[in-house]
Design brief:
By secondary structure, the protein is an alpha+beta fold. Helices cover 26% and strands 30% of the residues. Strands 2-3-1-4-5-11-6 form a seven-stranded mixed beta sheet, with helices on both faces. It binds guanosine-5'-diphosphate (GDP). Guanosine-5'-diphosphate binds at residues 17, 19-25, 84, 135-136, 138-139, 260-263.
Length: 410
């Protein structure tokens, strides 16, 4: 078996938010638009997104399972669940450890709230590159601009407005993509068809001036682009997105997008931003591990299928249909069904049983899971959350997850 997706086309991401900002709704819409679920609810049959969600729940497949795989434009997106409640701080940290990038959801009426501050600080601690989704743009009092300002002021971040909302509150209809100078509208109830149009007359001047500012801002974030910009070169959108991506991965900025997941508007541009701007496992630095018998002997794990296996179990879930599922991320090597691996901390050998990839609407059995990927395994007896799995001849432990005092803001 070979890889279905090259490693640079993986995005291991989390939807990060405090409770009530719309994390569940946004996740559900992402799974809906990533296509695998279209056949469940069809407009022709008069079913709606909500019906689809109810059906999913009845079938017992949880949409927000520990990790769900989706596909968008030739990219594999593994969505890792990050709990939003403050009580689950340790759990939030554990999930932040396995993801490479995040989408932080804000309520457009509230902007930054105390709990969004907590999750933001945690994501900072784990160097998780982030883009922002200003959700609930349909609500009375919603403001994209004020929300971005609160991200700047309360989080000390560098948010970048990538869009201009078209219409506001109950009249919110679409967005202007500032770089592309195009308008996008959602005219059907499910928001399936994203319609591209010219920027509306009343926003044209603003869109042009914002583009000039945006180009300057992006150019300033990247040394190579700065030089070319100062030499008067006309930078293409591809160059700008490339430079912006480097800046996002380096934690220098947080591009912001507008939408309302409940009313099915704005999710597709957010998915485009996920693949354009968030890192692949190749973009992150090597993962640290240490020898089991000597903590001072550091080992670096590279996202390479041919290296010895290094995997981290980040969540155990008892699934009513299949049993005890251990969700894991492979940092290096290839995990194969039937393989014997070592849990070095417990000193136990484990046989890799069924390997399962979870989609929103199905589970696929796979024979192998490659470096950089996330899946679940059945049959582990002595392995728990936070445990490493590695090859027996070269035991090491992935850097332990520390749980410092949570940062509680007032
Ligand atoms: P979570 O706690 O972050 O997972 O938030 P949910 O997705 O459960 O949403 C919390 C509440 O906000 C629910 O009542 C949703 O229906 C509502 N909600 C989510 N997104 C939107 C939105 O775009 N607009 C409006 N008006 N309500 C929303």
């Amino acid at each position: 078996m070979a890889r279905e997706f090259p490693l640079e086309k993986y995005r291991n991401i989390g939807i990060i938010a405090h409770i009530d900002a719309g994390k569940t709704t946004t996740t559900e819409r992402i799974l809906f638009y990533t296509g695998k679920t279209y056949r469940i609810g069809s407009v022709d049959e008069g079913t709606t997104v909500t019906d689809w969600m109810v059906q999913e729940r009845e079938r017992g497949i949880t949409i927000v399972s520990a990790a769900v795989t989706a596909e968008w434009k030739d990219y594999r997106i593994n969505l890792i669940d990050t709990p939003g409640h403050i009580d689950f701080t340790a759990e939030v940290q554990r999930s932040l450890r396995v993801l490479d990038g995040g989408v932080v959801v804000f309520d457009a009426c509230q902007g930054v709230e105390p709990q969004s501050e907590t999750v933001w600080r945690q994501a900072d601690k784990y160097n998780v590159p982030r883009i922002c989704f200003i959700n609930k743009m349909d609500r009375t009092g919603a403001s994209y601009t004020n929300s971005i300002e609160s991200i700047r002021n309360r989080l000390g971040a560098n948010p970048i407005a990538m869009q201009i909302p078209i219409g506001s509150e109950s009249d919110f209809k679409g967005v202007v993509d500032i770089l592309k100078q195009k308008a996008y509208y959602w005219e059907d109830e499910l928001g399936i068809d994203m319609v591209e149009k010219e920027v509306p007359e009343e926003l044209r001047a603003e869109a042009i001036s914002q583009r000039d500012l945006l180009v300057e801002e992006i150019a300033g974030l990247d040394d190579e682009l700065t030089v070319r910009f100062l030499e008067g070169e006309e930078l293409s959108n591809e160059d700008l997105i490339h430079g912006l991506r480097k800046a996002v991965i380096a934690g220098k900025c947080n591009p912001c997008y507008a939408g309302t997941s409940l009313k099915n508007k704005g999710v597709q541009p957010l998915l485009d931003a996920v693949v354009d701007l968030l890192p692949s496992p190749l973009d992150i630095s090597a993962t640290k591990a240490h020898q089991i018998d000597d903590e001072s002997k550091e080992i670096l794990l590279h996202a390479d299928d041919n290296e010895p296996v290094g995997a981290l179990v980040f969540k155990i879930v008892t699934d009513p249909y299949v049993g005890r599922l251990a969700y894991f991320r492979v940092y290096s090597g290839t995990v194969k069904q039937g393989q014997m691996l070592l849990n070095p901390v417990k000193g136990k050998k484990e046989r890799i049983g069924r390997l399962i990839r979870m989609y929103a609407d199905r589970r696929d059995d796979v024979n192998e899971v490659y470096a950089g990927d996330i899946a679940a395994v059945l049959g582990l007896k002595d392995t728990f959350t936070g445990d490493t799995l590695c090859e027996q001849h070269k035991p090491f432990v992935l850097e332990s997850i520390s749980f410092p005092e949570p940062v509680i803001s007032v």
